[in-house]
User: Fold this.
Amino acid sequence: MSEQTQQFGSDNYSGICPEAWAAMAEANRGHERAYGEDSWTQRAADHFRRLFETDCEVFFAFNGTAANSLALAASCQSYHSVICAETAHVETDECGAPEFFSNGSKLLLARTVQGKLTPPAIREVALKRQDIHYPKPRVVTLTQATEVGTVYRPAEVRAISQVCRELGLSLHMDGARFANACAFLGCSPAELSWRAGVDVLCFGGTKNGMAVGEAILFFNKALAEDFDYRCKQAGQLASKMRYLSAPWVGMLENGAWLRHAGHANRCARLLAELVVDVPGVELMFPVEANGVFLQLSETAIRRLTDWGWRFYTFIGAGGARFMCSWDTEEARVRELAADIRRAMA
Assistant:
């Protein structure tokens, strides 16, 4: 297979969706003011406020690592801690960036159920120690959808938010695949964020068809104080900001963000349906977003790799992750499913 053939290693493999591309091309005409003072950035922020049905503070960053790390740092002093899932991206895949940008706030890992934090697990970590020798818990961060493809329901987010309020903690949501969660649940973005008690959301664009760019939405405006200075200091204030914000206009104005997420989810469900009856294949987690986690034999994993398929195997012996994206073709899903069946034979 050529390197340009559709693969399932990551939803980051995909190109730019037409809506984002067209908006960038339109923004490329003429001159605009720099550093976020342009009309496109204002339009994108206003689209987010309409979509979320609230007057939130909106900022744009180049990538998810910066968005999450800066948002968490806005809630923390260096002596604070952040409670996260043991599989959270901020813990496993951001190279210590949350600690770096907060000047040392420690990540405290909590047990999960199918990749999701629970109120008892949060309470256990937050109340483990309360003496001055231990970093003081300050924030809980959720990943939506989780790193294993499961989705928090609004009631689950509300229950976690209630515990956060009881314990004096802020609630941050890493929404790299927030669109996929909305598409799966049929919920409005408001229902799944601030109405459920989320203080700040990092809304992912890259995994949903944009080239670069994540939006940081502060529903608790007090946490956004001086956040523009944080972005500047961290190298996240784009001089030509319209190229970060214009794609969001293209994605939000006609609902492309939700259509693309729904398509990726459907492709993931199709893959699961096509292989669930294969002897020896097991679904490791429910398919609720755009990822399919399969238990395969080591022989099958080697065969699939030899045949040119690209996927990740970071989830234990025999575990394989297959990600679908906004442009995944059904025929390609069926081709993969057929090869999984053949590899397991």
The radius of gyration is 20 Å. Residues 41 and 245 are 5 Å apart (CA to CA). The first strand starts at residue 57 and ends at 61. The chain has 13 helices and ten strands.
